[in-house]
Amino acid sequence: MTGRISTLPPPGPGGRLDASVPGGVVLHVRGRCAFRNLGGGRLVMLRQVHGGRIAFEPGGGEEADGMIIRRNGRCPALKLADCASLFLWSRNWLGAAHAGWRGLAASVVANLVASFPEEPEAAFIGPCILPCCYETGGDVRTLVIEACGGNHPPGRLDLVEAVRSQAEKAGLACEVYWTGLCTGCREDLYHSYRRDGTTARNIVWISG
Length: 208
Ligand SMILES: [Zn+2]
Fold this sequence. Notes:
The protein is of the alpha/beta class. 19% of the residues lie in helices and 29% in strands. It has a single domain (5-207), classed as CNF1/YfiH-like putative cysteine hydrolases, CATH 3.60.140. Helix 3 runs parallel beside helix 4 (159-169). The site of zinc ion has 6 residues, from loops.
């Protein structure tokens, strides 16, 4: 297992979360969000393609599903519907990976952990769909379990467990924060692709 798993305080209306954590970092979540005018123009967003590539010091718009950015005021940000995510931080670096089942099968979490330049101080898994709402059989479930390991309920996938397990195998040993909430169950807070089917998104980023 990775280090301790810590559940963050409940979010406000609209899934809004701005949680200060050790290391001088703030974790931010906005549910069902139009992503203009967030973060004072400091958010760096990728063109997410459900792959395994990590962009190093991206300017924004690169085709990749993970990034590593020096701590200089810019913030790694992800557009998420039901997919999981992993954010990392250390003294000089911030990192993020978009980790749905395709990304996990492409080892995006392992690639982020392995290429992160310093020992991460702590990590954050953003809100995602949980096993209560993620019935998945057959090839998808097999691919993710082969790529990640972890314990998953029969006929379902636990994306948080998959992210933790793949990160741990890649060497992550720090404390991990998460919201403990399911995008599928919490229609009041988050967009869910499986439930809503539209192109809205939840935006998650870290600053500091
Ligand atoms: Zn659920």
